[in-house]
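REQUEST ID: PR-0412
SUBMITTED BY: lab tech R.K.
PRIORITY: routine
TASK: structure prediction, single protein chain
INPUT:
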Amino acid sequence: MRRAELGSVSWRDIAGVRTKPESFIKGHSWRVGDVMTQPAVTVDEDMPVGGVAELMAAKGIKRIPVMRAEEMVGIISRSDILCAIAASVPDMVANGDDAVRRAVLARLCSDLGVENGAIEVTIENGTVSLSGQVESEALREAARVAAETISGAGGVRNRLRVVAT
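STATUS: complete
OUTPUT:
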C-alpha cells in the first residue's frame, strides 16, 4: 500500500523531484473516487480464470468485480487464483511411454497450436525428448513447459532448434 499515512508516499521522491500530481492524489486523498482504478475493470462470470489472471497482471490490479449482466455477483482476487492453482490436480494420463507421448503431442497441439508432426516427441526411459525446429526461443521453451506438465513425464530433453522464419 502506498499512502502518506504509512510514510510510503511523499510529494517529492528520493531524488527530490516532484511526483506527478496524479500520484500525489492517489497517495493522499481520502475520496474513493480519487484512489480507485479508473475506468472500472470488471469481468463476466464465465471468463476463464487464466484470462482473469492475465488481465490482473496487465492492469496491475489485485481484485476484479465479477459481473452477471449488470449485477455484481462477486470479487475475484489474486489470492483466489492462487488457491485454485494450489488445489488443482495435474492431468492424469494412462501409464506407459506411448500414453505420455500422446499426451505431450496433444498438449503441444491444443495449448501451443503446434501442427501435428512439427515437433518429434520420443520417450527414452520415461524421459521426454523434443526434437525438430521451431520459429522462436519462446516457443522452444513453451514446448518444454508443456511437456513437463504431463503426469508421467520423468524429465524433458529439449533438443528443439530455433530457425528464423
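NOTES: The longest strand covers residues 127-134.
REVIEWED BY: pending
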